[in-house]
Design goal:
The chain is an alpha/beta fold. It has a 6-stranded mixed sheet with strand order 6-7-8-3-9-10, sandwiched between helices. Strands 2-1-4-5 form a 4-stranded antiparallel sheet, covered by helices on one side. It has 11 helices and 10 strands. The chain starts with 5 loop residues before the first strand and ends with a helix.
Length: 266
């Protein structure tokens, strides 16, 4: 599979919540093609359906209608074995890092679980070295995290720990839902650089879920603009931002008048 191959394809993906008159459509007949090594941003305001779509992509939420293909075949998530195989390839970083970890498990176990998920048989020394290397990659010292619980860490440390897990797992796809929302402006570009580095080394596909048009323009090859559950515009990042076709896209861009200067773009 090369850069031009479609890794994940969605056709007419729909997600409805509720019944009868109380029914709402969060994702409305969405199509997409995500390629190996591609960086995609799904952009929209709160309530646009982008996080619901992310959960469907992750396999943690079942679509009401439509089909998802992975590596050219219909995605199968019925059995535990199928889900485990899929989640080995596809990982996510969420807006609130604390919601992604079991707060009653120490940091050591959270990282050891990554080694188990890969099915690696390592000695204690090899496990320690692998965990230390992953923490070092995100500028954390494993010795300082050793034996601590997640609630004893700061939001920034937790965000970095989540990226350390990605470094250990080497997934084919990373879904990053507002990954820089809980860090300050100084840490934002550092976090993004950490996320983008595995892509360069492993041709990882990254799907950013964000309301931040500036971030999307800065990091992405392709943009999907989402409004009220629908994809209203898609295309190369530069074309979508510099020559927006849809009124909603233009509105999003107008809300960030200094998009170039904010991200130090020419």
């Amino acid at each position: 599979m090369n850069r031009h191959d479609v890794l994940i394809r969605g056709r007419q993906i729909t997600k409805e919540f509720g019944f009868g008159q109380g029914k709402t459509t969060a994702v409305d007949h969405v199509d997409f093609d995500f390629h190996e090594g591609e960086i995609i941003s799904i952009v929209g305001e709160s309530g646009s359906g982008k996080t619901t779509l992310a959960k469907i992509l992750m396999g943690s939420l079942k679509e009401t209608g439509g089909t998802v293909e992975y590596k050219g075949k219909p995605r199968q998530l019925r059995s535990h074995k199928e889900r485990k195989a899929y989640w080995k390839d596809i990982q996510a970083i969420f807006q609130d890092p604390f919601s992604s970890f079991n707060l009653f498990h120490k940091v050591d176990k959270l990282l050891l679980d990554c080694i188990k998920l890969q099915g690696l048989k390592l000695t204690k020394e090899e496990q320690f070295r692998k965990m230390k290397e992953a923490c070092s990659f995100v500028n954390l010292k494993f010795e300082e995290l050793h034996n601590k619980y997640p609630f004893e860490l700061s939001g920034g440390q937790m965000q970095r720990l989540m990226i350390a897990r990605i470094f250990m797992l080497h997934p084919k796809v990373l879904i990053a839902d507002e990954p820089t929302s809980m860090v300050d402006a100084c840490s934002r570009s550092t976090i993004l650089d950490m996320l983008l580095k595995p892509r360069e080394e492993n041709h990882m596909t990254i799907i950013f879920i964000t309301h931040d048009v500036g971030l999307a323009y800065y990091v992405s090859d392709t943009l999907y603009i989402m409004e009220k559950g629908k994809i209203v515009e898609r295309g190369p990042a530069e074309s979508v931002i510099l020559q927006p076709q849809h009124p909603y896209t233009r509105q999003l861009i107008n809300d960030v008048p200094k998009i170039h200067s904010e991200w130090n773009l020419a």
